[in-house]
Structure prediction request, 446 residues.
Amino acid sequence: MTAKIVIIGGGLAGLSAGYHLADFEPVLFEKEKAIGGLCRSFTQDGFTFDCTGHLIHLKNAYTKELIGRLLPHAFQSHERLAAIYSKSTTTPYPFQANTYGLPADVIRECVVGFVESMQASNGDSSNFYDWVLHTFGRGIAKHFMLPYNEKFWKQDLRTITSDWVSWSIPKPTLEEVVDGALGLTNKGMGYNPKFMYPENGGIDSLPQALCRPVKNVKTEEAVQYVDPKKKYVRLTSGREEPYDFLVSTLPLPVLYQMLKDTPDSLKSKAQQLCAVSVLNINVGINRPGISNQHWIYFPEEQFIFSRVGFPMNFSKSVAPEGTSSMYIEITHRPKEKVNIEEIFDRVILDLQACGMFRKDDRILTRHIIDIECAYVIFDQHRQKHLQDLIDYVESRNILTAGRYGRWDYYSMEDSILSGKAAAERILKTIKDVTRHDHITTSECTS
Ligand SMILES: Cc1cc2nc3c(=O)[nH]c(=O)nc-3n(C[C@H](O)[C@H](O)[C@H](O)COP(=O)(O)OP(=O)(O)OC[C@H]3O[C@@H](n4cnc5c(N)ncnc54)[C@H](O)[C@@H]3O)c2cc1C
Prediction:
């Protein structure tokens, strides 16, 4: 069977689908000038910036083998150096297991609160706010978990479900909390104690490598709508592309806006899926060693940013000698108008207020990216309707893949694997159809 396969989106998920279907020469449409999606890198004035930090942590044997094969010897391995800046001091990540150095009354509240939470009955922890209190106790909740997450998610934490937290937020034992309070540093906790990063070229080298066998990549081609009945996609350029199989890595609400002949009730459910946006300010500074950390969290309200990272500590190649580079993350609600210049001025003041910037530091370059759909919000609505929304799309023979196609908290590895999963489903259908055709042909000729 010759199958016409169309893929929407040239991020890791779309490229992975293309890579795993390369023998069928799928056509991949990407609306931007270059492929890569969130894993694009931008080089400017000698600095290479990613969309904030994009660090690789692999759990799956297949992705380890794939990435090793695509980019042999390209990565450096790092032991995470992350910190929290609060109460005018810096403590190691994670906060909950490293309170030493904070004011004594804060440490006391954190330790006593943790012990109390262990003694209390578990209660209902289905929303994120309650989960934080039950898991960490009132002190850790008050001094880090609640303010940081309120700043990050930009909404009442009681409206966020707790079904995404089990792997992403490290839960310490009592021994770890006590050790951390006494200054016996707890290292290596959480899902990313070590990570990999390309020695050269920024994270972009990963999508570029995945793209190599994908022949029909059409950049600056934005899909405008999808007609699942007649099986074609229409692009804003006016081009129409028929397909037998379609893989979409578009954010699910965007795909629903583009789908012809779709029940309004489903369209409106899709529009209620929520995400937060990230304004990513990247800067190059005229001084080396501005920090020795990989990234620092800022839970306190007086700082506009929630996290600041230092790409020059991921790879020497991303910043010229004698300089430093930073990414600054500020979350906001999608569609909220952001005044970039006002925010930029505030960022500089806040960096000075926490002592990271000196008055005589000079910004050599800046690169600003507003990521509209950055972090999917896990809420009741998602919990209730996501499966129906995916099932309906699949019933129209469209496979969704990637962080936003599946509307999930996917890492780069997860996105690559979901593109592969979509490809495998297509390959299986093609194989089944070919076998069926073969059987019917031999039945006819026998
Ligand atoms: C701020 C941030 C930091 C992150 N840090 C890490 C990290 O450190 N480690 C990690 O493992 N993961 C990280 N991730 C997750 C990682 O970025 C994603 O899992 C992965 O890049 C998603 O790939 P994707 O292909 O699913 O989506 P995307 O990269 O969003 O790709 C979708 C593509 O579709 C294109 N597109 C959109 N509309 C159209 C249209 N109409 N027509 C054609 N093309 C279109 C887009 O331009 C884009 O290229 C981070 C994510 C964010 C937001």
